[in-house]
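User: Could you go from structure to sequence for me? I need the amino acid at each position, not a summary. Structure tokens:
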């Protein structure tokens, strides 16, 4: 096949889309570690600056390695356009700078990534953009939250850490009827498990830092869309404001995408095995994983996703002490709030990722003191279970 035939299957696109071979006939992709590019003449320079001729100008907005990653990710999302950014948060900032103005409102699902909440609540408010927070799964609440000044709906599905699932096709209809845009943060599923644009979303946001890299090496992000006008506004914002991805990081993500379909399937299988073990353990009160049939989002996730993902949480009988005891008893799992890594991670949301919201807000979001989150990695699931069992099989430590 042609290496830029974007109609191939995802496994093929992940390995082949976006590569542009140079005259050196390299097999793997090169890294173009250059800040600027030379022109064949003064007229060529003028033509490329004025964009009457396309071509590389300066790596803040045109770099071949970054473009290779952008094309591969766009192909996987079933889209044409992608702009890579310095981080996932830089992608969300670019989204706001490109599409919002003073007086606009945005409807945002409660429980989105903590820094996203801070960006909307603290920074964008200073520019008179007003966020309205809406429960992720309540379609009536979305309908009534959307008013004449609402410019976009911003959702993260499944949610973190409880795995609640939003109906993307229904939200796309609500957005269309209100003449606003549906934006989906697709970090947890990746395009391997969920393609929001094909369900009617207008824009997909990524933190490439998580599963796209998959081995915890680099920070990066991206904005993906099928709409040329929206893409142009992202591109021009990035070009002028400058939160660009470095060529080296783009190369790491581009190579990371080659194994994304394989890795996501393994993350899903391992998470399913660990979830079933936890369900059967007497020390565990409740397991939150959309792959379990009694999870409230199960049927919807089964319909709209191609897998249930690698993130799960569980409530222990007990409180914070018991949760910390189980976390501290592990010897292999990494105690870190990060996720989307080959290495399994474990965290206590109430005292880390969700510590900056009030206890009342945590309770409303279902984040209890005895909740533990696991980002299931690619080790043997038997070994992950052995490590969790060290604390779970032990009697609860007496409180002091
Ligand atoms: C990590 C993350 C982000 C932010 O990405 P960075 O690369 O850390 O800036 C945004 N959304 C979700 C869901 C994330 O997990």
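Assistant: Here is the amino acid at each position, in order:
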């Amino acid at each position: 096949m042609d290496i830029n035939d974007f109609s191939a299957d995802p496994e093929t696109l992940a390995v082949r889309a976006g590569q542009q071979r140079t005259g050196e006939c390299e097999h793997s992709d090169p890294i173009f570690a250059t800040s600027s590019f030379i022109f064949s003449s003064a007229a060529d320079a003028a033509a490329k600056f004025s964009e009457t001729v396309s071509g590389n100008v300066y790596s803040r907005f045109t770099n071949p390695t970054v473009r290779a990653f952008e094309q591969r990710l766009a192909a996987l999302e079933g889209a044409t356009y992608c702009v890579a950014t310095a981080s996932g948060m830089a992608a969300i900032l670019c989204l706001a700078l490109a599409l919002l103005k003073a007086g606009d409102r945005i409807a945002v699902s409660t429980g989105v990534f903590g820094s996203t909440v801070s960006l909307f609540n603290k920074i964008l408010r200073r520019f008179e953009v007003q966020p309205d927070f809406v429960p992720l799964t309540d379609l009536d609440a979305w309908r009534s939250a959307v008013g004449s000044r609402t410019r976009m709906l911003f959702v993260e599905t499944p949610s973190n850490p409880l795995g609640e699932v939003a109906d993307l096709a229904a939200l796309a209809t609500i957005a269309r009827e209100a003449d606003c845009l549906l934006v989906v943060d697709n970090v947890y599923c990746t395009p391997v498990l969920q393609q929001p644009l094909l369900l009617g979303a207008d824009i997909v946001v990524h933190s490439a830092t998580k599963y796209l890299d998959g081995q915890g090496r680099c920070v990066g992000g991206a904005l993906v869309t099928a709409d040329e006008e929206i893409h142009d506004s992202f591109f021009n914002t990035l070009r002028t404001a400058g939160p660009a991805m470095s060529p080296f990081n783009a190369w790491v993500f581009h190579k990371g995408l080659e194994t994304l379909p394989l890795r996501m399937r393994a993350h899903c299988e391992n998470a399913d095995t660990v979830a079933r073990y936890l369900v059967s353990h007497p020390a565990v009160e409740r397991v939150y994983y959309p792959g379990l049939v009694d999870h409230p989002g199960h049927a919807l996730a089964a319909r709209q996703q191609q897998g249930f993902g690698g993130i799960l949480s569980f409530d222990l009988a007990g409180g914070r002490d018991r949760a910390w005891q189980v976390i501290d008893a592990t010897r292999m799992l990494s105690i870190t709030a990060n996720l989307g890594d080959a290495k399994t991670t474990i965290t206590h949301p109430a005292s880390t990722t969700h510590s900056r919201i009030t206890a009342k807000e945590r309770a409303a979001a279902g984040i209890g003191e005895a909740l533990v989150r696991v980002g299931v990695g690619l080790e043997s699931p038997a070994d992950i279970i052995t490590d969790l069992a060290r604390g779970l099989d032990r009697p609860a430590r007496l409180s002091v």
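One structural detail worth keeping in mind: Residues 87-89, 113, 115-116, 156, 185, 187, 207, 209-210, 219, 221 surround pyridoxal-5'-phosphate (CB under 6 Å).
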